[in-house]
Amino acid sequence: MFVTLITLERFLVIKYPFGEYRFSTLAAYLSCLGAWCISILIAAVPFFPGHEDWALFSASSLCLAVPLDNAQHPGHIFSSVVYMGINFVMFVLLAGGQWAVYRAMSANSRTKFVGKCARKARRQEIAVARRLSVIVISNFLSFCPIAVLGLLRLLKGVEDMQRAYVWTAVLILPINSALNPLLYTLPSIKNKW
Q1: Which UniProt keywords apply (predicted)?
Q2: Which residues contact 173 (CB under 8 A, 6 or more apart)?
């Protein structure tokens, strides 16, 4: 959700370089607070009263609610919606946002910026948009296999998903978790040197 908010903010900065529309500090705080509240609410749903039989995290020894395990526990639809549905919606929003950022950059490149400062600011905005695209692509490459495997399990009834489940839990998710901080911070550190 935060990458979606960052994409929206980048779009506004690139589309309206003179500040006609921007996130105010209050709007940024409220947006982050809203994203945190939604995330905490989604994470807390399995612990609400009446959902004790879901057993999302105790369905396997890996303690992940990824919708790839073979058990048809009552909460498997919820985990499928979270991992496949919400991630798909976020990806569509991010891809659409990146496309809008690209269109705004190409439209603004047709207009003549005056002065060295304007060109430097433009280069910085393009660099930020590129970094954000790399983050979106890395997240897509991490969660797309989970979505495809989950859909295979739900639609085709593929039963033997234990190996895929282990590979996802041991390899794909940790690599994504390790890459995201690097993708966010390394370009900033590189620019300061």
Answers
A1: Leucine-rich repeat, Membrane, Repeat, Transmembrane, Transmembrane helix
A2: 64, 66, 142
